[in-house]
Design brief:
heterodimer, A: mainly alpha, MetI-like fold, about 75% helix, B: Rossmann fold, 2 domains, four-stranded antiparallel β-sheet, disordered C terminus
Protein backbone atom coordinates (compact mmCIF):
# COMPACT_ATOMS: atom_id res chain seq x y z
CA UNK A 1 0.00 0.00 0.00
CA UNK A 2 1.46 3.36 -1.00
CA UNK A 3 1.18 6.28 1.39
CA UNK A 4 0.86 9.90 0.35
CA UNK A 5 1.47 12.89 2.60
CA UNK A 6 -1.55 14.84 3.82
CA UNK A 7 -2.45 18.13 2.16
CA UNK A 8 -2.21 20.86 4.79
CA UNK A 9 -3.53 24.39 4.93
CA UNK A 10 -1.15 27.14 3.83
CA UNK A 11 -0.43 30.02 6.15
CA UNK A 12 1.38 33.37 6.17
CA UNK A 13 2.65 35.34 9.13
CA UNK A 14 3.08 39.11 9.05
CA UNK A 15 6.36 39.73 10.87
CA UNK A 16 6.74 42.68 13.22
CA UNK A 17 10.09 44.05 14.34
CA UNK A 18 11.69 42.33 17.30
CA UNK A 19 12.11 44.85 20.11
CA UNK A 20 12.18 42.76 23.24
CA UNK A 21 14.54 39.97 22.13
CA UNK A 22 18.21 40.96 22.60
CA UNK A 23 20.37 40.02 19.59
CA UNK A 24 23.58 40.13 21.59
CA UNK A 25 24.36 39.14 25.17
CA UNK A 26 27.59 39.90 27.02
CA UNK A 27 29.30 37.03 28.81
CA UNK A 28 29.56 37.02 32.60
CA UNK A 29 32.64 38.64 34.20
CA UNK A 30 34.50 35.41 35.19
CA UNK A 31 33.89 34.05 31.69
CA UNK A 32 35.27 37.21 30.14
CA UNK A 33 38.36 37.13 32.38
CA UNK A 34 39.02 33.48 31.50
CA UNK A 35 38.69 34.39 27.80
CA UNK A 36 41.89 36.49 28.10
CA UNK A 37 44.76 34.27 27.02
CA UNK A 38 47.28 35.99 29.33
CA UNK A 39 45.20 35.06 32.36
CA UNK A 40 45.26 31.39 31.38
CA UNK A 41 48.99 31.55 30.63
CA UNK A 42 49.70 33.24 33.96
CA UNK A 43 47.85 30.45 35.77
CA UNK A 44 49.98 27.85 33.96
CA UNK A 45 53.18 29.68 34.95
CA UNK A 46 52.08 29.94 38.58
CA UNK A 47 51.35 26.22 38.74
CA UNK A 48 54.76 25.40 37.20
CA UNK A 49 56.54 27.68 39.69
CA UNK A 50 54.70 26.03 42.57
CA UNK A 51 55.70 22.52 41.42
CA UNK A 52 59.31 23.71 41.06
CA UNK A 53 59.38 25.16 44.59
CA UNK A 54 57.89 21.97 46.08
CA UNK A 55 60.38 19.69 44.26
CA UNK A 56 63.28 21.94 45.36
CA UNK A 57 62.15 21.86 49.01
CA UNK A 58 61.94 18.06 48.91
CA UNK A 59 65.36 17.82 47.20
CA UNK A 60 66.82 20.28 49.70
CA UNK A 61 70.16 20.83 47.94
CA UNK A 62 70.50 24.32 46.53
CA UNK A 63 73.75 23.48 44.73
CA UNK A 64 71.84 21.12 42.44
CA UNK A 65 68.36 22.63 42.37
CA UNK A 66 67.68 26.01 43.95
CA UNK A 67 64.01 26.71 44.53
CA UNK A 68 61.83 29.24 42.78
CA UNK A 69 62.03 31.74 45.62
CA UNK A 70 65.83 31.54 45.78
CA UNK A 71 66.11 31.92 42.00
CA UNK A 72 63.75 34.87 42.07
CA UNK A 73 65.94 36.43 44.77
CA UNK A 74 69.09 35.92 42.65
CA UNK A 75 67.23 37.32 39.65
CA UNK A 76 66.13 40.44 41.51
CA UNK A 77 69.66 40.93 42.87
CA UNK A 78 71.14 40.53 39.40
CA UNK A 79 68.73 43.10 37.99
CA UNK A 80 69.25 45.47 40.94
CA UNK A 81 73.05 45.45 40.68
CA UNK A 82 72.73 45.91 36.92
CA UNK A 83 74.97 42.93 36.20
CA UNK A 84 72.24 40.82 34.60
CA UNK A 85 70.81 43.76 32.66
CA UNK A 86 74.26 44.59 31.32
CA UNK A 87 74.75 41.02 30.09
CA UNK A 88 71.30 41.01 28.47
CA UNK A 89 72.13 44.29 26.74
CA UNK A 90 75.36 42.86 25.30
CA UNK A 91 73.56 39.73 24.07
CA UNK A 92 70.52 41.55 22.64
CA UNK A 93 72.64 44.06 20.74
CA UNK A 94 74.48 41.31 18.89
CA UNK A 95 71.30 39.28 18.47
CA UNK A 96 69.30 42.10 16.86
CA UNK A 97 72.16 42.98 14.51
CA UNK A 98 72.47 39.40 13.28
CA UNK A 99 68.69 39.00 13.08
CA UNK A 100 68.17 42.12 10.98
CA UNK A 101 71.01 41.29 8.58
CA UNK A 102 69.58 37.76 8.26
CA UNK A 103 66.11 39.14 7.45
CA UNK A 104 67.48 41.52 4.82
CA UNK A 105 69.46 38.74 3.14
CA UNK A 106 66.50 36.35 3.26
CA UNK A 107 64.24 38.89 1.55
CA UNK A 108 66.86 39.58 -1.09
CA UNK A 109 67.27 35.89 -1.82
CA UNK A 110 63.55 35.11 -1.98
CA UNK A 111 62.79 38.16 -4.13
CA UNK A 112 65.46 36.93 -6.52
CA UNK A 113 63.96 33.45 -6.34
CA UNK A 114 60.44 34.54 -7.30
CA UNK A 115 61.60 36.72 -10.15
CA UNK A 116 64.24 34.59 -11.90
CA UNK A 117 64.74 30.92 -12.59
CA UNK A 118 68.42 31.05 -11.64
CA UNK A 119 67.50 32.74 -8.35
CA UNK A 120 65.06 29.92 -7.62
CA UNK A 121 67.76 27.29 -8.21
CA UNK A 122 70.24 29.29 -6.14
CA UNK A 123 67.86 29.48 -3.18
CA UNK A 124 66.84 25.83 -3.28
CA UNK A 125 70.46 24.65 -3.57
CA UNK A 126 71.74 26.92 -0.80
CA UNK A 127 68.89 26.14 1.63
CA UNK A 128 69.20 22.39 1.10
CA UNK A 129 72.94 22.71 1.77
CA UNK A 130 72.94 25.03 4.76
CA UNK A 131 69.55 24.60 6.47
CA UNK A 132 70.43 21.21 8.02
CA UNK A 133 73.85 22.50 9.12
CA UNK A 134 73.74 23.74 12.76
CA UNK A 135 74.87 27.35 12.78
CA UNK A 136 77.01 26.77 15.87
CA UNK A 137 79.11 24.34 13.81
CA UNK A 138 80.25 27.37 11.80
CA UNK A 139 81.65 29.11 14.90
CA UNK A 140 85.19 27.67 14.76
CA UNK A 141 85.42 28.77 11.11
CA UNK A 142 83.96 32.16 11.93
CA UNK A 143 86.47 32.67 14.73
CA UNK A 144 89.22 31.84 12.26
CA UNK A 145 87.89 34.28 9.66
CA UNK A 146 86.62 37.17 11.77
CA UNK A 147 88.64 36.75 14.95
CA UNK A 148 87.44 36.99 18.53
CA UNK A 149 84.72 39.57 18.36
CA UNK A 150 81.19 40.55 17.57
CA UNK A 151 81.63 39.84 13.86
CA UNK A 152 82.05 36.11 14.39
CA UNK A 153 78.85 36.02 16.44
CA UNK A 154 76.96 38.01 13.83
CA UNK A 155 78.17 35.62 11.15
CA UNK A 156 76.76 32.54 12.87
CA UNK A 157 73.56 34.43 13.79
CA UNK A 158 72.93 35.42 10.18
CA UNK A 159 73.53 31.83 9.21
CA UNK A 160 70.97 30.58 11.73
CA UNK A 161 68.26 33.10 10.72
CA UNK A 162 68.74 33.28 6.98
CA UNK A 163 67.88 29.77 5.79
CA UNK A 164 64.89 29.12 8.01
CA UNK A 165 63.36 32.48 7.10
CA UNK A 166 64.15 32.21 3.39
CA UNK A 167 62.61 28.75 3.21
CA UNK A 168 59.40 29.87 4.93
CA UNK A 169 59.10 33.09 2.96
CA UNK A 170 59.63 31.31 -0.34
CA UNK A 171 57.03 28.67 0.55
CA UNK A 172 54.64 31.50 1.46
CA UNK A 173 55.26 33.26 -1.86
CA UNK A 174 54.57 30.04 -3.75
CA UNK A 175 51.28 29.63 -1.89
CA UNK A 176 49.85 32.99 -3.00
CA UNK A 177 46.75 32.29 -5.11
CA UNK A 178 46.78 32.85 -8.85
CA UNK A 179 43.77 35.15 -8.56
CA UNK A 180 45.64 37.55 -6.27
CA UNK A 181 48.70 37.44 -8.50
CA UNK A 182 46.62 38.16 -11.61
CA UNK A 183 44.78 40.97 -9.80
CA UNK A 184 48.12 42.56 -8.88
CA UNK A 185 49.51 42.26 -12.39
CA UNK A 186 46.22 43.56 -13.76
CA UNK A 187 46.83 46.83 -11.94
CA UNK A 188 50.27 47.15 -13.51
CA UNK A 189 52.35 45.96 -10.53
CA UNK A 190 55.58 44.18 -11.40
CA UNK A 191 59.05 43.57 -10.03
CA UNK A 192 59.78 44.82 -6.52
CA UNK A 193 56.44 46.65 -6.24
CA UNK A 194 54.62 43.39 -6.97
CA UNK A 195 56.62 41.60 -4.26
CA UNK A 196 56.04 44.37 -1.69
CA UNK A 197 52.36 45.12 -2.37
CA UNK A 198 51.06 41.64 -3.19
CA UNK A 199 53.39 38.78 -2.31
CA UNK A 200 54.66 39.96 1.09
CA UNK A 201 51.26 40.74 2.66
CA UNK A 202 49.67 37.67 1.07
CA UNK A 203 52.46 35.42 2.41
CA UNK A 204 52.64 37.15 5.80
CA UNK A 205 51.47 34.14 7.84
CA UNK A 206 54.40 32.08 6.50
CA UNK A 207 56.81 34.99 6.83
CA UNK A 208 55.82 35.48 10.48
CA UNK A 209 56.30 31.77 11.12
CA UNK A 210 59.75 32.07 9.55
CA UNK A 211 60.58 35.13 11.67
CA UNK A 212 59.56 33.21 14.82
CA UNK A 213 61.69 30.19 13.95
CA UNK A 214 64.55 32.49 12.97
CA UNK A 215 64.30 34.33 16.31
CA UNK A 216 64.39 31.07 18.28
CA UNK A 217 67.30 29.72 16.23
CA UNK A 218 69.19 32.97 16.71
CA UNK A 219 68.75 32.86 20.51
CA UNK A 220 69.89 29.25 20.76
CA UNK A 221 72.89 29.90 18.56
CA UNK A 222 73.85 33.04 20.47
CA UNK A 223 73.71 31.47 23.92
CA UNK A 224 75.61 28.41 22.70
CA UNK A 225 78.20 30.59 20.96
CA UNK A 226 78.67 32.72 24.09
CA UNK A 227 79.29 29.64 26.21
CA UNK A 228 82.24 28.83 23.96
CA UNK A 229 83.26 32.25 22.86
CA UNK A 230 82.92 34.14 26.13
CA UNK A 231 85.39 31.69 27.66
CA UNK A 232 88.01 32.69 25.15
CA UNK A 233 87.43 36.44 25.14
CA UNK A 234 86.69 36.95 28.82
CA UNK A 235 83.68 39.15 28.25
CA UNK A 236 80.29 38.22 26.94
CA UNK A 237 76.58 38.30 27.34
CA UNK A 238 74.00 36.09 28.95
CA UNK A 239 75.57 32.80 27.82
CA UNK A 240 78.84 33.80 29.45
CA UNK A 241 76.99 34.85 32.64
CA UNK A 242 75.46 31.36 32.87
CA UNK A 243 78.78 29.63 32.16
CA UNK A 244 80.79 31.73 34.62
CA UNK A 245 78.33 31.29 37.48
CA UNK A 246 78.24 27.54 36.95
CA UNK A 247 82.04 27.50 37.28
CA UNK A 248 81.73 29.36 40.56
CA UNK A 249 78.85 27.11 41.69
CA UNK A 250 76.36 29.97 42.00
CA UNK A 251 73.61 27.63 40.82
CA UNK A 252 70.87 30.11 41.71
CA UNK A 253 72.50 32.68 39.40
CA UNK A 254 72.67 30.05 36.64
CA UNK A 255 68.95 29.60 37.07
CA UNK A 256 68.44 33.36 37.08
CA UNK A 257 70.32 33.57 33.76
CA UNK A 258 68.24 30.78 32.28
CA UNK A 259 65.09 32.46 33.59
CA UNK A 260 66.17 35.65 31.85
CA UNK A 261 66.46 33.78 28.53
CA UNK A 262 62.99 32.32 29.05
CA UNK A 263 61.57 35.67 30.11
CA UNK A 264 62.92 37.48 27.06
CA UNK A 265 61.50 34.67 24.91
CA UNK A 266 58.07 35.08 26.50
CA UNK A 267 58.11 38.86 26.16
CA UNK A 268 59.15 38.77 22.49
CA UNK A 269 56.61 36.02 21.76
CA UNK A 270 53.66 37.65 23.51
CA UNK A 271 54.31 41.35 23.02
CA UNK A 272 56.24 41.14 19.76
CA UNK A 273 55.04 38.39 17.47
CA UNK A 274 51.57 37.95 18.92
CA UNK A 275 50.90 41.68 18.71
CA UNK A 276 52.07 41.78 15.11
CA UNK A 277 49.83 38.80 14.39
CA UNK A 278 46.85 40.40 16.06
CA UNK A 279 47.33 43.61 14.10
CA UNK A 280 47.84 41.86 10.77
CA UNK A 281 46.99 38.30 9.81
CA UNK A 282 44.36 37.78 12.53
CA UNK A 283 42.70 41.11 11.83
CA UNK A 284 42.65 40.29 8.13
CA UNK A 285 41.07 36.88 8.71
CA UNK A 286 44.06 35.09 7.17
CA UNK A 287 44.74 33.15 10.36
CA UNK A 288 42.54 32.23 13.26
CA UNK B 1 27.41 42.73 -39.72
CA UNK B 2 29.34 39.90 -41.34
CA UNK B 3 29.83 36.81 -39.23
CA UNK B 4 33.34 36.99 -37.76
CA UNK B 5 34.12 33.38 -38.59
CA UNK B 6 33.69 34.10 -42.28
CA UNK B 7 35.60 37.33 -42.07
CA UNK B 8 38.79 36.87 -44.05
CA UNK B 9 41.55 39.03 -42.68
CA UNK B 10 44.10 40.28 -45.17
CA UNK B 11 46.62 43.06 -45.36
CA UNK B 12 44.17 45.49 -47.00
CA UNK B 13 41.56 45.27 -44.28
CA UNK B 14 41.63 48.46 -42.23
CA UNK B 15 42.58 47.80 -38.64
CA UNK B 16 39.34 49.22 -37.27
CA UNK B 17 36.35 47.80 -39.08
CA UNK B 18 33.26 49.91 -38.58
CA UNK B 19 29.61 48.95 -38.43
CA UNK B 20 27.75 52.04 -39.59
CA UNK B 21 29.12 54.88 -37.47
CA UNK B 22 30.44 52.62 -34.73
CA UNK B 23 34.01 51.45 -34.47
CA UNK B 24 34.84 48.40 -32.40
CA UNK B 25 36.59 48.96 -29.08
CA UNK B 26 38.01 45.48 -28.80
CA UNK B 27 38.96 43.31 -31.73
CA UNK B 28 39.84 39.67 -31.32
CA UNK B 29 41.33 38.71 -34.63
CA UNK B 30 41.77 35.04 -35.59
CA UNK B 31 43.17 34.20 -32.19
CA UNK B 32 44.57 30.76 -31.40
CA UNK B 33 45.46 30.04 -27.77
CA UNK B 34 47.67 27.22 -26.56
CA UNK B 35 48.62 25.76 -23.20
CA UNK B 36 52.02 24.18 -22.88
CA UNK B 37 52.51 21.26 -20.53
CA UNK B 38 55.92 19.60 -20.15
CA UNK B 39 54.88 16.85 -22.57
CA UNK B 40 52.27 18.38 -24.87
CA UNK B 41 50.77 21.51 -26.36
CA UNK B 42 47.02 21.79 -25.83
CA UNK B 43 45.04 23.92 -28.26
CA UNK B 44 42.51 25.93 -26.24
CA UNK B 45 40.97 28.01 -29.02
CA UNK B 46 41.34 28.04 -32.77
CA UNK B 47 40.78 30.93 -35.14
CA UNK B 48 38.42 32.91 -32.90
CA UNK B 49 37.39 36.37 -34.09
CA UNK B 50 34.87 38.83 -32.69
CA UNK B 51 34.41 42.57 -32.23
CA UNK B 52 33.17 44.31 -29.12
CA UNK B 53 31.67 47.80 -29.51
CA UNK B 54 31.54 50.55 -26.89
CA UNK B 55 28.82 49.95 -24.26
CA UNK B 56 28.41 46.34 -25.41
CA UNK B 57 27.58 43.68 -22.86
CA UNK B 58 29.33 41.01 -24.83
CA UNK B 59 29.03 37.47 -23.52
CA UNK B 60 31.32 34.53 -24.25
CA UNK B 61 29.24 31.40 -23.79
CA UNK B 62 30.20 27.80 -24.19
CA UNK B 63 30.50 24.47 -22.42
CA UNK B 64 33.36 23.85 -20.06
CA UNK B 65 36.63 23.48 -21.93
CA UNK B 66 35.72 25.77 -24.83
CA UNK B 67 38.46 28.24 -23.96
CA UNK B 68 36.16 31.11 -22.98
CA UNK B 69 38.10 31.90 -19.81
CA UNK B 70 41.35 31.56 -21.75
CA UNK B 71 40.06 34.12 -24.25
CA UNK B 72 39.27 36.51 -21.39
CA UNK B 73 42.73 35.96 -19.93
CA UNK B 74 44.23 36.68 -23.33
CA UNK B 75 42.27 39.93 -23.56
CA UNK B 76 43.46 40.79 -20.05
CA UNK B 77 47.02 40.14 -21.23
CA UNK B 78 47.81 37.16 -18.99
CA UNK B 79 47.97 34.75 -21.92
CA UNK B 80 49.84 35.44 -25.16
CA UNK B 81 48.00 34.31 -28.31
CA UNK B 82 49.88 31.66 -30.29
CA UNK B 83 48.21 32.97 -33.43
CA UNK B 84 46.30 36.11 -34.35
CA UNK B 85 46.07 39.38 -32.49
CA UNK B 86 43.93 41.16 -29.93
CA UNK B 87 43.54 44.90 -30.27
CA UNK B 88 42.08 47.45 -27.89
CA UNK B 89 41.31 50.78 -29.53
CA UNK B 90 43.41 49.62 -32.48
CA UNK B 91 46.53 48.94 -30.39
CA UNK B 92 47.70 45.36 -29.92
CA UNK B 93 47.59 43.93 -26.38
CA UNK B 94 50.90 42.60 -25.10
CA UNK B 95 50.67 42.59 -21.31
CA UNK B 96 48.23 43.10 -18.44
CA UNK B 97 47.31 46.71 -17.82
CA UNK B 98 44.90 48.84 -15.81
CA UNK B 99 42.90 49.82 -18.91
CA UNK B 100 41.28 46.35 -18.74
CA UNK B 101 40.15 45.44 -15.23
CA UNK B 102 39.22 41.83 -14.51
CA UNK B 103 36.55 40.71 -12.05
CA UNK B 104 37.30 37.11 -11.12
CA UNK B 105 35.03 34.41 -9.83
CA UNK B 106 37.11 33.62 -6.75
CA UNK B 107 36.45 35.48 -3.52
CA UNK B 108 40.16 35.77 -2.80
CA UNK B 109 40.54 38.36 -5.55
CA UNK B 110 40.16 40.95 -2.75
CA UNK B 111 43.47 41.22 -0.85
CA UNK B 112 42.43 40.28 2.70
CA UNK B 113 44.90 42.76 4.21
CA UNK B 114 43.03 45.73 2.80
CA UNK B 115 39.71 47.13 3.98
CA UNK B 116 36.86 47.44 1.50
CA UNK B 117 37.79 51.04 0.77
CA UNK B 118 41.50 50.28 0.48
CA UNK B 119 40.61 47.45 -1.88
CA UNK B 120 38.76 49.81 -4.20
CA UNK B 121 41.63 52.31 -3.96
CA UNK B 122 44.28 49.64 -4.61
CA UNK B 123 44.28 49.64 -8.44
CA UNK B 124 43.95 53.44 -8.54
CA UNK B 125 47.07 53.82 -6.39
CA UNK B 126 49.01 50.84 -7.79
CA UNK B 127 48.62 52.12 -11.35
CA UNK B 128 49.31 55.68 -10.14
CA UNK B 129 46.07 56.86 -11.75
CA UNK B 130 45.07 59.08 -8.85
CA UNK B 131 46.52 60.52 -5.67
CA UNK B 132 45.47 59.22 -2.27
CA UNK B 133 42.72 61.71 -1.57
CA UNK B 134 41.09 61.54 -5.00
CA UNK B 135 41.30 57.75 -4.92
CA UNK B 136 39.52 57.67 -1.54
CA UNK B 137 36.79 59.98 -2.84
CA UNK B 138 36.24 57.91 -5.95
CA UNK B 139 36.29 54.67 -3.95
CA UNK B 140 33.53 55.95 -1.67
CA UNK B 141 31.51 57.14 -4.67
CA UNK B 142 31.55 53.71 -6.31
CA UNK B 143 31.03 51.88 -3.02
CA UNK B 144 27.87 53.94 -2.54
CA UNK B 145 26.82 52.93 -6.04
CA UNK B 146 26.98 49.23 -5.16
CA UNK B 147 25.35 49.90 -1.78
CA UNK B 148 28.40 49.22 0.41
CA UNK B 149 29.14 52.76 1.62
CA UNK B 150 28.58 51.65 5.21
CA UNK B 151 31.14 48.85 4.94
CA UNK B 152 34.05 50.98 3.71
CA UNK B 153 36.19 50.14 6.73
CA UNK B 154 35.30 46.45 7.03
CA UNK B 155 37.77 43.73 6.08
CA UNK B 156 36.78 41.38 3.25
CA UNK B 157 36.63 38.27 5.46
CA UNK B 158 33.72 39.81 7.36
CA UNK B 159 31.59 40.18 4.21
CA UNK B 160 29.20 37.74 2.55
CA UNK B 161 29.91 36.33 -0.90
CA UNK B 162 27.56 38.74 -2.65
CA UNK B 163 29.12 41.71 -0.86
CA UNK B 164 32.60 40.59 -1.91
CA UNK B 165 31.41 40.37 -5.51
CA UNK B 166 30.01 43.91 -5.18
CA UNK B 167 33.34 45.21 -3.86
CA UNK B 168 35.14 43.60 -6.81
CA UNK B 169 32.69 45.29 -9.21
CA UNK B 170 33.06 48.66 -7.47
CA UNK B 171 36.84 48.29 -7.62
CA UNK B 172 36.69 47.56 -11.34
CA UNK B 173 34.30 50.43 -12.09
CA UNK B 174 36.33 52.90 -10.02
CA UNK B 175 39.26 52.40 -12.38
CA UNK B 176 36.96 53.48 -15.23
CA UNK B 177 38.68 51.00 -17.56
CA UNK B 178 38.16 50.97 -21.30
CA UNK B 179 36.65 47.54 -20.92
CA UNK B 180 35.46 45.53 -17.96
CA UNK B 181 36.31 41.83 -18.06
CA UNK B 182 34.21 39.45 -15.95
CA UNK B 183 35.14 35.80 -15.61
CA UNK B 184 32.04 34.01 -14.30
CA UNK B 185 31.83 36.62 -11.52
CA UNK B 186 28.62 35.23 -10.01
CA UNK B 187 29.24 31.49 -10.46
CA UNK B 188 30.33 30.98 -6.84
CA UNK B 189 27.24 32.74 -5.46
CA UNK B 190 23.99 31.11 -4.40
CA UNK B 191 21.08 31.33 -6.85
CA UNK B 192 19.21 34.13 -5.05
CA UNK B 193 22.29 36.32 -4.67
CA UNK B 194 23.25 35.64 -8.27
CA UNK B 195 19.84 36.84 -9.48
CA UNK B 196 20.22 40.01 -7.39
CA UNK B 197 23.73 40.65 -8.70
CA UNK B 198 22.63 40.27 -12.32
CA UNK B 199 19.89 42.80 -11.68
CA UNK B 200 22.31 45.25 -10.03
CA UNK B 201 24.84 44.84 -12.82
CA UNK B 202 22.19 45.77 -15.39
CA UNK B 203 21.14 48.80 -13.34
CA UNK B 204 24.79 49.90 -13.05
CA UNK B 205 25.21 49.48 -16.80
CA UNK B 206 22.12 51.64 -17.45
CA UNK B 207 23.79 54.31 -15.35
CA UNK B 208 27.47 54.09 -16.33
CA UNK B 209 27.30 52.44 -19.79
CA UNK B 210 30.60 50.64 -19.41
CA UNK B 211 31.79 48.12 -21.99
CA UNK B 212 31.61 44.60 -20.65
CA UNK B 213 33.10 41.30 -21.74
CA UNK B 214 31.39 38.62 -19.69
CA UNK B 215 32.25 34.92 -19.54
CA UNK B 216 29.61 32.46 -18.38
CA UNK B 217 28.59 28.84 -18.80
CA UNK B 218 24.92 29.59 -18.11
CA UNK B 219 22.59 30.15 -21.04
CA UNK B 220 20.11 31.97 -18.82
CA UNK B 221 22.75 34.32 -17.44
CA UNK B 222 24.09 35.01 -20.94
CA UNK B 223 20.62 35.97 -22.20
CA UNK B 224 19.87 38.17 -19.18
CA UNK B 225 23.21 39.95 -18.83
CA UNK B 226 24.35 40.23 -22.43
CA UNK B 227 23.22 42.19 -25.45
CA UNK B 228 25.23 39.96 -27.77
CA UNK B 229 26.38 36.39 -27.23
CA UNK B 230 29.31 34.60 -28.83
CA UNK B 231 28.83 30.83 -28.81
CA UNK B 232 31.97 28.71 -28.68
CA UNK B 233 32.29 25.01 -29.45
CA UNK B 234 34.43 22.87 -27.17
CA UNK B 235 37.93 21.42 -27.71
CA UNK B 236 39.34 23.55 -29.19
CA UNK B 237 37.10 26.61 -28.86
CA UNK B 238 35.82 27.80 -32.22
CA UNK B 239 33.15 30.36 -33.01
CA UNK B 240 29.78 28.66 -33.49
CA UNK B 241 27.49 31.68 -33.71
CA UNK B 242 26.82 35.24 -32.58
CA UNK B 243 23.36 35.86 -31.21
CA UNK B 244 21.54 39.03 -30.17
CA UNK B 245 20.06 39.10 -26.70
CA UNK B 246 19.57 42.85 -26.17
CA UNK B 247 15.79 42.29 -26.09
CA UNK B 248 15.95 40.13 -22.92
CA UNK B 249 16.34 41.05 -19.29
CA UNK B 250 15.34 39.54 -15.95
CA UNK B 251 11.65 40.24 -16.76
CA UNK B 252 11.78 38.02 -19.82
CA UNK B 253 12.81 34.91 -17.87
CA UNK B 254 10.50 32.09 -18.91
CA UNK B 255 8.89 34.13 -21.73
CA UNK B 256 8.23 32.47 -25.10
CA UNK B 257 10.91 34.33 -27.08
CA UNK B 258 13.43 33.84 -24.27
CA UNK B 259 12.86 30.10 -24.18
CA UNK B 260 12.96 29.92 -27.94
CA UNK B 261 16.41 31.56 -27.99
CA UNK B 262 17.61 29.43 -25.07
CA UNK B 263 16.58 26.31 -27.00
CA UNK B 264 18.31 27.58 -30.11
CA UNK B 265 21.53 28.22 -28.16
CA UNK B 266 21.34 24.78 -26.61
CA UNK B 267 20.93 23.25 -30.05
CA UNK B 268 23.91 25.21 -31.41
CA UNK B 269 26.13 24.25 -28.48
CA UNK B 270 25.30 20.58 -28.03
CA UNK B 271 23.73 19.26 -31.25
CA UNK B 272 25.98 18.77 -34.20
CA UNK B 273 23.01 17.60 -36.28
CA UNK B 274 19.67 19.40 -36.38
CA UNK B 275 17.49 16.88 -34.58
CA UNK B 276 15.66 18.14 -31.50
CA UNK B 277 17.21 17.25 -28.15
CA UNK B 278 15.45 14.19 -26.87
CA UNK B 279 14.83 14.56 -23.15
CA UNK B 280 15.54 18.11 -22.12
CA UNK B 281 12.85 20.02 -20.30
CA UNK B 282 13.15 23.73 -21.01
CA UNK B 283 10.38 24.69 -18.64
CA UNK B 284 13.23 25.32 -16.26
CA UNK B 285 15.93 27.25 -18.06
CA UNK B 286 18.19 27.18 -15.01
CA UNK B 287 19.41 23.72 -16.02
CA UNK B 288 22.75 25.26 -16.83
CA UNK B 289 23.60 25.76 -13.17
Amino acid sequence: MSISPPIRDEYEIALTTLDDVPLERTLSLPQRIWQQSWVRKAVILLVLALIWEIVARIQNNDLLLPGFVQTAQAFVDGVATGELIGKVWISLKVLVKGYLIGIALAFGLTTLAVSTQLGRDLLSTLTSMFNPLPAIAMLPLALLWFGLGENSLIFVLVHSVLWALALNTYAGFLGVSDTLRMAGRNYGLRGLRFVLFVLVPAALPSILAGLRIGWAFAWRTLIAAELVFGASSGKGGLGWYIFQNRNELYTDKVFAGLAMVILIGLVVENFGFNTIEKLTVKRWGMQR
Amino acid sequence: MPSPAADQHDADTPILRAVGEHTPLLQVDRVGLQYRSPTAVVQATHDVSFDVYPADRFVLLGPSGCGKSSLLKAVAGFLKPAAGEIRLDGAAIHQPGPDRIVVFQEFDQLPPWKTVKQNVMFPLLASRTLGKREAAERALYYLDKVGLGKFANAYPHTLSGGMKARVAIARALAMQPKILLMDEPFAALDALTRRKMQEELLILWEEVRFTLLFVTHSIEEALVVGNRILLLSPHPGRVRAEINSHQYDLQSLGGVGFQETARRIHRLLFNEGNEEPAQVNFKDVRFSY
